């Protein structure tokens, strides 16, 4: 070891100095984590919530723009049954329908509770919560036109929802630990005792003992080069779960949002199209007529992303380049300034394009993970991915897979997912609490965490993390994006092998422990590689096309063989798959056309 | 051919408790590169010990504010071509304790904002099966207030705050105003107990630096005047 003092000192000191004890510890302060914190704290539990960022409201939920779906019917007729049908059809029939039913029914309560806590939603002329159209949300079990279902606050919905929860949590006195980086769970078989963290501000490890531990750490879009997600979206929670023996479910389903600002991929909300925006190719055509003639620009995301990619591949990108246009000019300055102000700000600041005057250059962008840590409908983690409960361990939000999104998520259903299941998870922890116990910490409880840190600090090689990160992001972008096929996926498998070799020759010169962001990013890179591996192997083994998994070599959905969830297990010896059935309580799978 | 930028960056090493400056030269060839891209370029290629804070990369999380040639800006949304000089002196946000290099302690923001009861106060629970009524006009009163991303730029730019650390500061007063103007809120009197004070709305010397620097084009100074007006009406 390079610096045995720092590492062993902390390991030994864990039981003495840096142990915190709470009833509940929540890892992540986004929509999912904060909802759970609020429910636990309101019920009188000693609740602590940590984030690796400097304040809870830095969490990436704040970037959500378009809205949160709920069949409130503020402006026109709507029903939860319609919302459920759309969610299930959007998922290409891979969503568990019992969970989808809960999602859409709880949606109404959750949105009202947000309003009661103070969320400044935009309003209708009657003073109700305003609602807009969003892709895939339609009337009458798919038979009607687009429905006004996405509740919004201009195009800053995530910002207002996150700030509202943060405000409520402050009012209730939730204990926050900020810049606290969770590294490994403390487990004993399928029982969780808490989590070991690295205090990035001061250096040193901490152990958090809790009866209930919730993982709510968000997604991992940073595995791709073009992405709408924050730099902190790095699969930390998924990695911790894998290391505790929990499988990851349906990881091959990763959503590419159709409209990322060229060329970084910053999101231009689907609300642009919900308000009436067009997608235009180099010939000036609204090309969606060739892909989804009935729903046009408001077809679900997987379909629109494939359409854009196909246009670009056919040479019909703007001036033959790798992007097309999102045109909202015809909405007029008034609508753009009141309903899409942030879109305007971002496209001016990042692309130098004022959407009132010019069309916005866009490209599909890595956005959202449908897969994740398998849970029951109350956020309890399933150790075998099916029915065995991991005692004391919970997961919610983008890092979890209930599964309500199946193979493709509808817009506005994920702020909803994080809220509904974060909330249910909090309620479940309160209910389970009398039967949970504080498990003792062992002498070596922090060993896994100190090894994680040591693995990076102690390398003697010469390869820079950036080189490996580039290889990962380029590989995923080229081989595991909107379209996939065996040749490319196999190439990615060899890239992954290469990256594993390079990881053990990676060198960082900064060896300190306090605010060492190089170390943090190197750890995050390791998590991203683990997630990318699950995505790649999942995509390779699933020989069908369904939702976001579009295999060129297997273009059809294959219900006979693949109407099932993938469970990906990983340990030191390698990986293996298991599968579980899809819950089909209400709707029979049918061909998915828009 | 790109543009050559010369950066002089403030450094603070918590382990040795020493401050210094580092100089870097970066040639920017991509026209859309932001200051954050330049920081990341330095970190990934020239000096991996350079430390700065960022997260969303799209001007919405409030992590990345720094001082450039004396002015606070968000590194992630500021394109290099919009900076008015090729010589850049970069320092942490002023008025905040420094943790390392460009990273300052955000607990200050948390402390200040908590003091103004930044949550909706309502005396009785609303009916559970419906939302409360709010007119479009009443909701519009919150525009220009609710968008604050708590980046700290306005606090760093506030000379009053530099002199008087007990002053609540522009950010928390703006955040307070967002609730005071909310037609659904019932906490006005309680909040005024803290706000109507020389460390609150009367601490401001209406210099309006806050408005100048706010990356979200908000105007904390105006919010403070609004609160004063409201308090006077309340009194009379
Ligand atoms: C640009 C963009 C726009 C979107 N727009 C919409 C939309 O309009 N509608 C919609 O429904 N969905 C939208 N989504 C998706 C949706 O916002 C997210 O899926 C959802 O908000 C995730 O919430 P979360 O609580 O799971 O995670 P997050 O809000 O990301 O929170 C994760 C938390 O975990 C913490 N964390 C992570 N790792 C660690 C660690 N190792 N240790 C400690 N803490 C850790 C983070 O610091 C953070 O506090 C959008 C997503 C993006 C990227
Ligand atoms: S008011 Fe503006 S400058 Fe001040 S913290 Fe909020 S967003 Fe930042
Ligand atoms: S990194 Fe989020 S505001 Fe700059």
Count of helical segments of chain B? 9
| Tally of strands of chain A | 22
> Helicity range of the residues of chain A?
25-40%
Please, how many helices of chain A? 16
Low-confidence stretches of chain B: none
Radius of gyration of chain B: 20 Å
> Oligomeric state of the chains?
heterodimer
Task: Tell me the layout of helices and strands.
The complex is a heterodimer of chains A (594) and B (236).
Chain A: H1 4-13, E1 19-27, H2 31-42, E2 47-51, E3 68-69, H3 80-90, H4 97-117, E4 131-132, E5 150-151, H5 157-172, E6 175-178, E7 180-187, E8 192-199, E9 205-215, H6 236-243, E10 248-249, E11 254-261, H7 271-274, E12 278-280, H8 301-313, E13 324-327, H9 332-339, H10 341-351, E14 360-369, E15 373-374, E16 380-382, E17 389-395, E18 400-401, H11 414-432, H12 447-457, H13 465-479, E19 483-484, H14 486-503, H15 517-541, E20 550-551, H16 559-562, E21 564-571, E22 574-581
Helix pairs in contact in A: 1-12, 2-5, 2-11, 3-4, 4-11, 9-10, 13-14, 13-15, 14-15
Chain B: E1 3-13, E2 18-28, H1 35-46, E3 65-68, E4 71-74, E5 87-91, E6 98-100, E7 103-104, H2 107-114, H3 136-140, H4 153-156, H5 159-163, H6 169-180, H7 188-195, H8 209-213, H9 220-235
Helix pairs in contact in B: 2-6, 6-9
The complex binds flavin-adenine dinucleotide (FAD), iron/sulfur cluster (SF4) and FE2/S2 (inorganic) cluster (FES).
Q: Could you characterize the architecture of this molecule?
A:
The complex is a heterodimer of chains A (594) and B (236). Chain A is an alpha/beta fold and 594 residues long. Helices cover 35% and strands 19% of the residues of chain A. Chain A has helices spanning 4-13, 31-42, 80-90, 97-117, 157-172, 236-243, 271-274, 301-313, 332-339, 341-351, 414-432, 447-457, 465-479, 486-503, 517-541, 559-562, and strands at residues 19-27, 47-51, 68-69, 131-132, 150-151, 175-178, 180-187, 192-199, 205-215, 248-249, 254-261, 278-280, 324-327, 360-369, 373-374, 380-382, 389-395, 400-401, 483-484, 550-551, 564-571, 574-581. In chain A, strands 1, 2, 6, 7, 8, 9, 16 and 17 form an eight-stranded mixed sheet that branches. In chain A, strand 1, helix 2 (31-42) and strand 2 (47-51) form a beta-alpha-beta unit. With 236 residues, chain B is α+β, with helices and mostly antiparallel strands. Helices cover 32% and strands 17% of the residues of chain B. Chain B contains nine helices and seven strands; from the N terminus they run ββαβββββαααααααα. Chain B has helices spanning 35-46, 107-114, 136-140, 153-156, 159-163, 169-180, 188-195, 209-213, 220-235; strands at residues 3-13, 18-28, 65-68, 71-74, 87-91, 98-100, 103-104. In chain B, a hairpin with a 2-residue loop joins strand 3 and strand 4 (71-74). In chain B, helix 2 runs parallel beside helix 6 (169-180) and helix 6 packs across helix 9. The radius of gyration of chain B is 20 Å and the shape is elongated. The relative contact order of chain B is 0.13. Chains A and B meet through helix 4, helix 5 and helix 10 of A and helix 1 and helix 2 of B.
């Amino acid at each position: 070891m390079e610096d045995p003092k720092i590492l062993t000192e902390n390991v030994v000191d864990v039981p003495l100095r840096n142990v915190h004890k709470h009833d509940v510890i929540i890892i992540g302060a986004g929509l999912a984590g904060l909802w759970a914190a609020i429910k636990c704290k309101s019920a009188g539990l000693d609740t602590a919530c940590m984030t690796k960022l400097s304040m809870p409201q830095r969490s990436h939920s704040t970037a959500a723009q378009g809205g949160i779906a709920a069949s409130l019917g503020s402006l026109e007729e709507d029903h939860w049954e319609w919302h459920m049908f759309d969610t299930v059809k959007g998922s290409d029939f891979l969503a568990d329908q019992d969970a989808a039913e809960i999602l859409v029914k709880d949606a109404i309560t959750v949105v009202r509770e947000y309003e009661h806590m103070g969320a400044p939603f935009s309003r209708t002329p009657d003073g109700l919560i305003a609602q807009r159209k969003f892709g895939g949300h339609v009337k009458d079990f798919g038979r009607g036109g687009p429905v006004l279902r996405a509740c919004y606050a201009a195009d800053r919905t995530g910002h207002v929802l996150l700030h509202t929860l943060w405000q409520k949590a402050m009012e209730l006195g939730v204990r926050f630990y900020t810049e606290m980086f969770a590294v490994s769970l403390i487990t004993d078989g399928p029982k969780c005792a808490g989590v070991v963290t690295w205090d990035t501000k001061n250096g040193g490890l901490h152990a958090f003992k809790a009866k209930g531990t919730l993982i709510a750490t968000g997604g991992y879009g940073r595995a791709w080069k073009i992405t709408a997600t924050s730099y902190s979206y790095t699969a930390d929670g998924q990695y911790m779960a894998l290391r505790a023996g929990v499988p990851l479910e349906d990881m091959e389903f990763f959503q590419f949002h159709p409209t990322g600002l060229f060329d970084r991929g910053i999101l231009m909300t689907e609300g642009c199209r919900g308000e009436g925006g067009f997608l235009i190719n180099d010939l000036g055509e609204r090309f969606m007529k060739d892909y989804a003639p009935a729903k046009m620009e408001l077809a679900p995301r997987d379909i629109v992303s494939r359409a854009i990619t196909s246009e670009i591949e056919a040479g019909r990108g703007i001036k033959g380049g790798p992007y097309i246009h999102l045109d909202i000019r015809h909405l007029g300055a008034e609508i753009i300034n009141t309903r899409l102000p942030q879109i305007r700000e971002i496209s001016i600041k990042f692309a130098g394009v004022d959407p009132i005057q010019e069309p916005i250059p866009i490209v599909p962008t890595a956005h959202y993970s449908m897969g994740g840590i398998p849970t029951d409908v109350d956020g309890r983690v399933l150790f075998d991915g099916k029915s065995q409960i991991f005692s004391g361990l919970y997961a919610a939000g983008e890092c979890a897979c209930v599964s309500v999104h199946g193979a493709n998520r509808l817009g506005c259903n994920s702020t909803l997912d994080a809220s509904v299941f974060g909330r249910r998870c909090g309620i479940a922890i309160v209910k389970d609490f009398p039967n949970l116990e504080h498990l003792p910490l062992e002498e070596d409880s922090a060993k896994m965490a100190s090894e994680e840190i040591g693995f990076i600090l102690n390398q003697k090689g010469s390869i820079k993390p950036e080189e490996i990160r580039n290889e990962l992001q380029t590989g995923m972008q080229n081989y595991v994006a909107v379209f996939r096929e065996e040749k490319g996926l196999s190439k990615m498998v060899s890239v992954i092998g290469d990256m594993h070799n390079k990881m053990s020759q990676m060198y960082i010169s900064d060896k300190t422990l306090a605010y060492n962001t190089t170390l943090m990013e190197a750890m995050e890179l390791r998590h991203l590689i683990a997630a990318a591996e699950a995505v790649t192997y999942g995509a390779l083994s699933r020989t069908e096309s369904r939702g976001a998994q579009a295999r060129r070599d297997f273009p059809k959905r294959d219900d006979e063989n693949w109407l099932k969830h993938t469970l990906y297990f990983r340990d030191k010896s390698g990986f293996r798959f298991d599968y579980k059935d899809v819950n089909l309580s209400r709707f029979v799978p049918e061909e998915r056309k828009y | 051919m790109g543009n050559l930028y010369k950066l002089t960056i403030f450094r603070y090493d918590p382990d040795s408790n020493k401050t210094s400056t580092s100089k870097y030269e970066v040639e920017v060839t991509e026209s859309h590169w932001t200051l954050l891209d330049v920081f990341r370029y330095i970190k990934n290629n020239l000096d991996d010990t350079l430390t700065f804070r960022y997260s969303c990369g799209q001007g919405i999380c409030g992590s990345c504010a720094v001082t450039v040639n004396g002015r606070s800006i968000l590194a992630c949304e500021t394109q290099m071509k919009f900076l008015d000089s090729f010589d850049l002196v970069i320092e942490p946000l002023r008025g905040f304790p420094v943790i390392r290099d460009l990273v300052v302690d955000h607990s200050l923001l948390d402390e200040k904002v908590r003091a103004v009861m930044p949550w909706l106060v309502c005396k009785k629970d609303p009916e559970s099966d419906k939302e409360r009524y709010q007119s479009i006009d009443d909701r519009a009163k919150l525009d220009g207030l609710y968008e604050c991303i708590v980046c700290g730029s306005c606090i760093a730019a506030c000379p009053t705050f530099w002199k008087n650390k007990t002053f609540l500061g522009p950010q928390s007063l703006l955040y307070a105003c967002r609730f005071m103007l909310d037609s659904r809120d019932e906490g006005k009197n309680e909040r005024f107990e803290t706000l109507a004070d020389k460390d609150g709305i009367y601490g401001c010397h209406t210099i309006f630096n806050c408005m100048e620097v706010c990356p979200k084009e908000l105007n904390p100074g105006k919010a403070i005047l609004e609160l004063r007006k409201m308090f006077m009406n309340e009194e009379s």
